[in-house]
Amino acid sequence: MKIIITICRWIIAFSITLLTGGVALVFVLISYGKLRNRCVTYIIKPASRFILWVIGFRGCYPPLDKFPKHQVLYTFNHNAEQDIYLLTALGLQNVRFLLSEKTLIYIPLVISALATGTFYIPQKKHSKRRLQFFKKTTTFLKETNYSIAASSEGVHPHFHGIAPFNRGIYHMALEAKIPIVPMFIYVPEENNMTAFKYAKKGTLKIELMQEISTKEWTLENLDTHINEVRNLFVKRFNELNPTNKTT
């Protein structure tokens, strides 16, 4: 029965994603991108919240007026399959998400992601393309007022904890001279649908953490600062999971 419930949840989620993402993408294309923010607000955001509700989860989100109006790098922990719906349920304006090319096999997600203007990061095994991607995205940040949202952990086996952080997005923020805004995603272990396993119904949450300036950062001390940011996530995770701490 649990397997059937899980399969039904994903069929429902992907079906709604395909439908609403497709509609949003059509509007984005025919408007040459001018309706992207409206599609995020009036199609992607409510659809994401509806998907979470239909498959058994309630999302708790910071109000939009608490988010910065200026250009930033939003970064977050990522160890649950529901994370993508939690993030798009925020309805952030003028934000481009970064997703791994590994997710290109999930066609409904790809269509919805294209509607929101998502950029796809080459995997680490494609080091030259990956380097060019970060250079191109850094230039994009310098030439526009768009923000970027990306996981600090990158591609990794999902588990209940905080994985090691990647360097690429932080180097990008340093070069583009933009601050970093961490967002902590809280998914209780029993509510985590990782690896398409059965999860209990429950409440999932995104917390907006304090903005971090990169003005004093240098390439030489970048790893130190990345570790400091990671420690913020580890601390918050352990506060919420006192009997199952991460390191």
TrEMBL record:
Task: Identify the keywords attached in UniProt to this record, alphabetized.
Answer: Acyltransferase, Membrane, Transferase, Transmembrane, Transmembrane helix
Membrane spanning segments where? Answer: 7-32, 103-121
Q: Name one GO biological process term.
A: phosphatidic acid biosynthetic process
Keyword Transferase attributed:
yes
Q: Which GO terms describe its molecular function?
A: 1-acylglycerol-3-phosphate O-acyltransferase activity
User: Phospholipid/glycerol acyltransferase domain spans which residues?
Assistant: 72-188
Sorted alphabetically, which SMART domains does this protein's record hold? Answer: PlsC
InterPro entries per the record?
A: Plipid/glycerol_acylTrfase (IPR002123)
Query: What pathway or pathways are given for this protein in its record?
Result: Lipid metabolism
Protein name according to UniProt: Phospholipid/glycerol acyltransferase domain-containing protein
